[in-house]
Structure formats: C-alpha cells, structure tokens
C-alpha cells in the first residue's frame, strides 16, 4: 500500500509510520511526505530518504487554489492512501472528493468529543478525566468522518496541554500504524466507511 502523508508540525506520528514501514513485513510504504508550510517534520524525508513537497497555504490566493495545487502534488505519487498526520488545515471539498475514501486523519481526542484544531486544549478546559485518540475517514465535515479506531487516554490532575498531548500521541501513533496495517491487509475496507 503506497502512502502520501501530510503534516504541518514535527511529524512524530509520521515518524512512527516511517519506522513501521522500515519493517519488510509491514505492507505499507510512504512514497512522499507533504506539508502546508515549511514544517519541521519535512526533515524526516531527509532522514528516511523519502521525497517531500511543501504547498504553503499562505502562498495562495484562497483555499481552493491551495487545495488544487496540493491535490496535483499528491496525485503525482498515485498513492493508494493519503494520511493526514497532524495536518492543521481543512481540505477543500474538491480535494476530499478526489481522494475519498482513501483519506484518513488522526485526531487527539475521543471523537465525536472535542473535534477541531484544539482537541487537547478543549478536553483540558472541559475538566474531563479521560479523553482519547481517534483515526477517522475524512469527509467534508470537521473531524466527523467514520471512526476506524479510537482509544481512551487518561487525563492526569496536573496535566498541561503538552503533557496530555504527549500521552495521547503515544496511543495515537500505535492506532495509526495499526489502522494503516488493517487497511493494507483488508481488515478495514474504506469503501464501506465512506460517506462523501
Ligand atoms: C497529532 O496529535 C495530531 O492528531 C494533531 O496534531 C498532532 C501532530 O503531532 N492534529 P505530530 O506532528 O505528529 O508530532
């Protein structure tokens, strides 16, 4: 299964996928890494010998134009699956339509709880004792696509956003590596999940 992985940040979830795919038994290969900015995680392309591309959102007149260029870059690699691994940008409907259902996202909360760009902060602010991590199929909503996998993560009394997010990421990385494996070996059939 060939993957294009899109990031905006440090790419710790991406690193987990890269490390998993170094195992010859793991049936997925990352063919390119993309970002919507000059993301620190693009350096992983250098480290693991994977091509990277950056489509800076701020360089385009609007979201649609950005999305068209991003889609053109993705399609060059003809991936079987596109993984949003910390992409902090909503994809325009045209991009979702072109890629769906072979488009998944990882989110640091127990969806449908705490969707959106601040799921960790929102869980902390809500004072919940547990949150979670979720892997979903991307549709045109905000983190409201079909859930492929999710797991609860405890919130500790003195958690900061960073300490909680770090604890969530440990679970998130495992769920993401497993979700890609399940898709590659047919245990998860994305066509059944799609609702775009
Ligand atoms: C992940 O928790 C992801 O779910 C969220 O942002 C974080 C990205 O972390 N959208 P990293 O770039 O993989 O370290």
TrEMBL record:
Q: Which residues cross the membrane?
A: none
Q: Which residues bind N(1)-(5-phospho-beta-D-ribosyl)glycinamide?
A: 11-13
Q: Which UniProt keywords apply?
A: Purine biosynthesis, Transferase
Formyl transferase N-terminal domain segment(s): 3-180
Q: Which GO terms describe its biological process?
A: 'de novo' IMP biosynthetic process
Q: Name one GO cellular component term.
A: cytosol
The protein's matches in Gene3D superfamilies, at most eight in alphabetical order, are given as: Formyl transferase, N-terminal domain
Q: Where is this site: Raises pKa of active site His?
A: 143
Catalytic residues per the record? Answer: 107 (proton donor)
Q: Which reaction does it catalyse?
A: N(1)-(5-phospho-beta-D-ribosyl)glycinamide + (6R)-10-formyltetrahydrofolate = N(2)-formyl-N(1)-(5-phospho-beta-D-ribosyl)glycinamide + (6S)-5,6,7,8-tetrahydrofolate + H(+)
Explain the purpose of this protein.
Answer: Catalyzes the transfer of a formyl group from 10-formyltetrahydrofolate to 5-phospho-ribosyl-glycinamide (GAR), producing 5-phospho-ribosyl-N-formylglycinamide (FGAR) and tetrahydrofolate.
The protein here is known as Phosphoribosylglycinamide formyltransferase
| Taxonomic source organism | Cryobacterium psychrophilum
**Source gene?**
purN
